[in-house]
Amino acid sequence: MGSLFRTADRVLPGSTYRAVAIVTVTIIAVALSYGAISAVSGFAWWQTLLLAMFALGGAAEFTFVGVIAAGGAPILAVLAGLLVNSRNFAFGVAVGAFFPQDWRALIASHWINDESTAISRLGHNDRAKWHAFLLMGAAIAIMWPGGAMVGQWLGNVINADLLGLDAAFPIILFCLIRGDLKNRVTLSLTVIGILIAVGLTPLLPLGLGAVTSLSVFVFVAAGWGVRWFIRRRRAGDNSADPHDAAHSQHSTREESRR
Amino acid sequence: MSAVSFLIALAGLSLGTYLMRFAGVKVGAAIATKGRRRTPATASAGPDSSVGADASAGVDGQGTTAPAGVAGQGTAASAGAGDSADSTERVTMWMDRATVVLIGAVFATTAVFDGTDIADPARLIGVGAGVLASILRVPMLLAVVIGMGVCALIRTTGIL
Domain coordinates of chain A in residue numbers? Predict the structure, then answer.
C-alpha cells in the first residue's frame, strides 16, 4: 500500500489532494453523526463498527439504523440498505473501465461510492483516475469506521445538524461535476436526470430516486435506434447521402434533449 | 435486536452491496475491453468495414469523408480501425456522461430530500448558497464552508 501511494505522489496534481482532504474532513464529520445516531438507537459499538466497515456506504448505514430504530424488521433494513447502495452498481460500471483486472480490483471494488467515483473523474488518464480513486477509497475506508467509533463514544453530545454538515455533501458533489457541465449535451442530460430523480424520489422506496435519473439514456438509446434503422433502410436503397446522415444525427440530438 | 440476527442482516447487506459493486466493475471492464478489441476484427472484415466507415463518418457529422463506393481495400481497413478507436472513445464518453448524470441526481436528491421527505429550508438555502458560490468559480473548500455556514446560521438563529 505504501508503494502505491508513493507512486500516487507523482501521478496526481496537488488540487486532487486538496479535494480528497476536503471530502475526508466532511466524511469524518458525517461519520461522527452516524456513530452518535447509532449509539442513540441502541446499537453496540461493535455493531456500529462492523456496519461501517463492511457496508461502507454512508447513506446505507443511516437507512439501516433508521429502519431498525423505527422498529422495522431486519430484513426490511437489509433491503432498504441494498436499495440505497444499488447506485454503486452504476458507479462500478463507470470506474471498472480503468480498474486493473487482477486481485486489486477485488479490494478496490469495496471502496466504490459516490465520493471515490467523483474524485476519480478528476484524473486525466486511466492511471491518474485509478490513483485518485485509491486515495479517496482508502481515506473513506479508514475514516468512516474511525469517525463512527468516535461518534459512538461521544453519543449525543454533538449535533452535526447544527453545524450544517448535511448541506456540505450535496455541495461537494456539485463541485466535483461542475467542470463537466460546461458540455451542453451533458448539462441538458444532467438537468433532465435531476428533474426525473427529484420528481420520483417521494414516490419510490429510499435510495431508488437517484438511480431513476439514468432513464434519460433511454431517450438517447431510442435516438440511436431510430438513426440505425434509418441508415439501414438507406443502405438497402444503396443511396447513402451524407447530408441526410447529418440530418438524422441532428434529430437524434433533439431526441436526447427531450 | 439480537447479536445473531444483527450478524445475519449485516452479512446480507455487506455481501449484497459488495456483489453489486463488483458486478458493476466487471461490466465496466467488459465494455471498455470490447471497445479496444474491436480494432483488428473490423479491419479484417474487408468489404463490410467500408459500410462501417461510412457509418462512423455519418455519426461524426463529417459525411464528406470516405463515401462507401470509393473506398478501396486499404482505405477501408484504415477507416475501419479509425471507426473502432472512435467507438471506444464514444462509449467512454457516454459512460462518463452517465456518471455525471448519476452524481448530479445524488446531489439533487440529497440536497432536496431527507429520506423521502422534503428537507428543511435551512439545508435548501445552504446548498443553494454553496452551489451559487461554486458557479461563480469560488474554490471548492470556500463553497463548502459558505454553504455550511449559511445552513448553520439559519438553524442556530432559528430565523426560519
Answer: 2-176, 183-258
**Please, what's the b/e burial string for B82-100 (b: 16 or more CB within 10 A of its CB; e: otherwise)?**
bbbbebbeebbebbbbbbb
At A184, which helix (H) or strand (E)?
helix A184-200
Alpha helices in A12-125 (DSSP H): 14-40, 45-55, 59-69, 74-85, 87-96, 103-108, 114-120
Cell of A144: 468512516
**Which among B21, B97, B135 is the nearest to A88, CB-wise?**
B21
Query: How far is Cα A102 from Cα B63, in angstroms, rounded to an integer?
Result: 42
pTM of model > 0.80? no
Q: Which of B16, B67, B140 sits opposite A175 (nearest CB)?
A: B140
The mean per-residue pLDDT over the stretch B143-154 comes to 88
Burial of B31 (0-12, 13-18, 19+ CB in 10 A): middle
Give residue-wise pLDDT tens across range A200-239.
888 876 656 777 888 888 888 888 889 888 888 888 765 5
How many interchain CB pairs under 8 A, A with B? 305
**Contact list, A64 vs chain B (CB under 8 Å):** 9, 13
Q: What is the ipTM of this complex?
A: 0.72
Confirm if A252 and A224 have CB atoms less than 8 A apart. yes
Distance in Å, alpha carbon of B121 to nearest chain A alpha carbon: 11
Best mutation site among A25, A79, A136, A171 for testing chain B: the one with the most B CBs within 10 Å? A171
CB contacts under 8 A, A 152-171 vs B, are 161-171
